[in-house]
Every structure is written in structure tokens, then in C-alpha cells.
Fold this protein.
Amino acid sequence: METQRPRILIVDDEPNIRQGLAEALHGQGYEIEQASSGEAALELLQSSPFHLVLLDLVMEEMDGIDVLREVNRQYPKTEVVIITAHGTIETAVMALKEGAYDYLTKPINVKRFRSYVHNILRSQELEEENRQLREQLRTRQEYGQIVGRSEKLLTILEMIEQLAPTDVTILIEGESGTGKELVAHAIHQKSGRGHQPFISVNCGALPKELIGSELFGHEKGAFTGAAQQKQGRFELAHRGTLFLDEIAEMDLEAQVTLLRILEEGKFRRVGGTREVEVSVRVIAATNKSLEEQVEKRRFRNDLYYRLNVVRMSLPPLRQRREDIQLLAHHFLGTFCAKYHKPGLKFSPEVTARFVEYEWPGNIRQLKNCIERTVILERGTEIGLDLLQELVDRESQVVAESGILVGQSLAEMEKEMIRQTLEHTGGHRKRTAQVLGISERDLYYKLKKYRLK
Ligand SMILES: Nc1ncnc2c1ncn2[C@@H]1O[C@H](COP(=O)(O)OP(=O)(O)OP(=O)(O)O)[C@@H](O)[C@H]1O
Ligand SMILES: [Mg+2]
């Protein structure tokens, strides 16, 4: 953070205009210097940096445009605002093309001028803060346990940093294995609630009849089998964070209950009469688009708005391939240590294959794949042969997880092809490889199922 006062340089060869501008900005907490010529301005700039230069374009000696060019070249962080008389708008427009921040036309309204300058300096400060934050994130080796330095990931890390200290409800969207839970956990740890519990609920795995009791707890004897009073997840998460995983899978009736507690912050245990009040920060995650679920009427609109105060979208691994190498080496290190196989390396073909592979199961798939190769590898180098088999098997597992009993084989086949195509971004050769069929067969099946 900058503690230094913002420095402003006023450049004009007419003393009364310089003086007028300086007076308008007087008492605002700035350090103001004046220069009566372009040369004098450049000299002052050389001796110490300025945040803002207010520049007259038409001066006797050196032209304002030349000063502007020099400032842009040597001090790119310094903003230049052109002060111009009515007749010279065209020159001012040219100045904008030369990189001036803006231009002001004389006569100048003092009050507006003050807030104008204030806003420029403030947004400059914010920009600088963001830049520093990004720089810090970039140079840090790891952020929590989050590995990766792609621009897309840095944006996520920045959001974590900014959102963690607030109590705002967050909705995290992203394909399976993109790190939703990891990010939720990082937010929790960076928040003031970090020493309090992080409670995770898999909304998809809760049987409908038990949701109430799971979330809110129950009193002794509330129903058959309730031998003891039990605290629900909301109570357990008191002062901490509640992570509602797979929120799209939540039963519609349960959604009503959830909405109520989110709005009121209190609830009754099942079979209880007393209201329990809790302070819980809620983070929800989904690998489906909640918006789509709302459209299909599988998710309540009002609950969606309540959860979607801030949305974070975790990019799939194939959209940030820069991270693959870093992640692969990180996991290799972890598993070599875990399985006592020091010095194990990837062959160059493996590294290349990693980077071009589509990773339908994202980081989890990469992690699992490396864990298994480390266990199975008997030599000192992980080669393509072993990897190929694992990667292919892994992507089949991912596709199979969507299969429902009751589907016909043909439906399943069609769905598998469709999903694999989606994962390879429509790459037919790779799709055929992953599915273990020839390209010709794939072509035939695409026609048969009318897939594009
Ligand atoms: N950037 C990362 N750096 C290191 N490990 C990561 C990263 N992202 C994810 N992982 C690891 O990958 C695995 C999957 O992450 P996580 O469980 O957070 O994914 P998810 O989005 O919740 O997936 P799902 O939707 O399938 O539940 C975890 O073991 C996690 O630690
Ligand atoms: Mg998860």
C-alpha cells in the first residue's frame, strides 16, 4: 500500500492558469508542483515521479505534445490530462491518440475539477493495488494448496483474496475435478472463520427423507430411530463455513427449507420447538449450470438468486494448458514421496502428451493418473506406454459415471460418443482413440446416431 501523498505536476506557461489550477487542488492532500515550460516539466519528472500531469498543449517553447510523448515513453505509470482552450479540441483529440488519459476544456469548474482529479488518482491507486496483488500471487509458489499460474487461475486467486474476508455467499461452478472444493476451502481459510469448522455437505447424496435432519439436526425421539438429539450441519458449521456441494442435485422440497434458513439465519431442529440461531458462511458448488437447471424447473429461482450473490467459474484444465506442467510435476513430487520412489521422471513424450490431452476429468484425472503411474512404474522414467493405457481407461471411467441403468446399449453408446466428442472438442481422431474404435467406425456411428 502506498502511504505517499499523490504527486501532481501542473505544466503551463501562463502563470495565472498554473496558479488557478494549483489553488483549486490546494488542501486536498496532494503534493503539487508547477512548471512553466516543457523542459522544466521534464526536469522535475526526472528528479521524482508524479502520479498525474496536467498539461497545457500550446506553449511558447517546447510543445505539449512532445512532453506527452516523453512522459509516455519514460514514465508509463504517470497519467497525463491535457488542459485545452475551446479552439484547440482537434489537437486535444490528437493528444488522446498519443496516449493522454483525457482532456479538459477551459474554463474549468473548480468543484468538478477536484472530484475529477480525485477519481483519476483513486482508480490509479486501485489499479496499482491489483497489479501488486497479482504480482504477489504470481511469485508465490503455492496459494493454499492451489497450484498453477495461468492468467485464468490468477483471476480466481485474486477473487479468493478479495472475497474471503467478506461473508458473502458464493456459488462456484465448474466441471468435475476443476478444484471447486479446494477453492471453497481456500476461501474459508483466508476468511476470519479459518479456525472454525469447514463443514461439507454433498447435497446429491442426501436421501430426501433425511435432508431435514442432516441439515438442521433433530431432537431425541423426533422420529423412529432418533434415539439421541443430533446437531445438523448448519449447527456444526456455526461460526465457520458450510460447503453445499452438488447443490443442483438437491431435492426441490429441500430447497424450500434451505432458502428459509438462508434468509432467516435460524431454524428449528426436526421435532424441536426452540429456534436455533447460527452464523454460517455458505459456499455452494455445482458442476451443472444452475441457470439451466432453473430454466428446466429443477432448481428454484429464488434459491438460485440467494446463492448466486457472487459466482466463480472454474475453468476446465484444457482451457488453461499452461498449468498442466506445473500440476503434473507437483503431483509427481507428492506421489514419489508418498510411495518412496525418489527421482522418478516423466519422459519428454509424456510431458508433451499431458499438455495436448483434453483432460475430461480435469485436475482430479491428472492427479489420479499420476498416482497410478507412480505406483505401477518399475523403472526410473514414466513412459508413454503405461500412461496411454491409464489415460484412456480414466476417460472411460469419467464417461461411464453418467450412465443410468434402464438405458439401452444404443442410447449409452450414443451418449458416450457425444460426451467424448465434446471433451475432445470435436476432434474425431482423438475421440476414436479414446473410445478404442477406428475412425471409420466412429464415422459410421456418427451417421447412425445423427451426431455432428
Ligand atoms: N489447482 C490445483 N492445485 C492442486 N491440486 C488441485 C488443484 N485443483 C484441484 N486439485 C486437486 O484435484 C482434486 C479435485 O479437486 P476438487 O475435489 O476440489 O474438485 P471439484 O471441482 O470439487 O470436483 P467434483 O465436481 O468432481 O467434486 C483434489 O484432489 C484437489 O486437491
Ligand atoms: Mg467436489
